[in-house]
Amino acid sequence: MENKQTMKAVIATKYGTPEVLEIKEVRKPIPEDTEVLIRIYATTVHRGDVRMRKFDVPRAFWIPARLILGIRKLKNAILGMEIAGEIVSIGKDVSLFKNGDKVFASTFWTGFGGYAEYVTMPEEGALVLKPTNMSFEEAAVIPAGGITTLGVIRQANIQSGQKVLIYGASGSVGTFAVQLAKSLGAEVTGVCSTTNLELVKSLGADKVLDYTKDDFALSDETYDVVFDAVDKLPSKQGKKALKESGVYLNIDKASDKIKKKDGRFLLRDLKELIEAGKLNAVIDRTYTLDQIVEAHRYVDAGHKKGNVAVTVTTE
Prior knowledge:
- With 315 residues, this protein is α/β, with parallel strands linked by helices.
- The chain has 2 domains: 6-142 and 281-311, Medium-chain alcohol dehydrogenases, catalytic domain (Quinone Oxidoreductase, Chain A, domain 1); 146-256, 3-Layer(aba) Sandwich (Rossmann fold).
- It is 26% helix and 28% strand.
- It has helices at 47-53, 62-69, 136-140, 143-155, 172-183, 197-202, 235-240, 251-254, 263-275, 292-300; strands spanning 6-12, 21-27, 35-44, 82-90, 102-106, 118-122, 127-129, 163-167, 187-192, 207-210, 223-228, 242-250, 283-288, 307-311.
- The strands form 3 sheets. Strands 3, 4, 5, 6, 7, 13 and 14 form a 7-stranded mixed sheet that branches. The protein has a 5-stranded parallel sheet with strand order 10-9-8-11-12.
- Helix 4 crosses helix 5 (172-183) and helix 4 crosses helix 9 (263-275).
- The chain is globular, with a radius of gyration of 20 Å.
């Protein structure tokens, strides 16, 4: 049992630039009967954290979004939607985990909280034992993007030998998508910028296209699946490259079909793929929690490759 009553956390004081994030001492959470308390070793700066911090919401949804997220500032002031750490306390009715278990998790459905030294989670949340062949930083970058990508990829029912094009193949979702499509036996074409061609090749892509030079929609090549992994591809352009019975996927629209109850099972499947050597973490940069403002600035710039990890504390 951890005796410390407070913890260090990053608080979003209002909506705005990375500078609205401040490190403060706050009360450490106490797990309820069916919850576990996790000491966080690593978290990330995910696209979702950045969008919530600066209230990046389409104008048509401003009013409902403010009511849900918070009027002048976030109701859940501690961001961080994916974590890796160790269980240090459990509620009296917890049976799935024990103290000392090393875990990784998505806190997306449970109020976030990854930018802190500790967080509580329900034992039946998107919480799974950490892959044995990953560091805490590597494991932390898997849950949010990995769950989303695997959930979306499965909607296409990809079969071995099919041709899959992934637009935005060097981002967080894209790097997962390339590897997951390859694990299903697909022939994968990745579309990215010039500087990221080698990275996408190293993940297993059979072909890579430089979007600054090549317009795949003007080619005669057609695909069974076209996956826009960054929500930047005009749907008309993407669908033009589909076979007659092909499937077009947009990450933002298709991810809406992934429900809270799916999270734990998708994360469990990701762990199996990782331990089988079929899925690796792609980390662009690693920061410390004290560097969270700098980390958000970097992600804001829009040029990250894969994921940005944040070391919260060490073992």
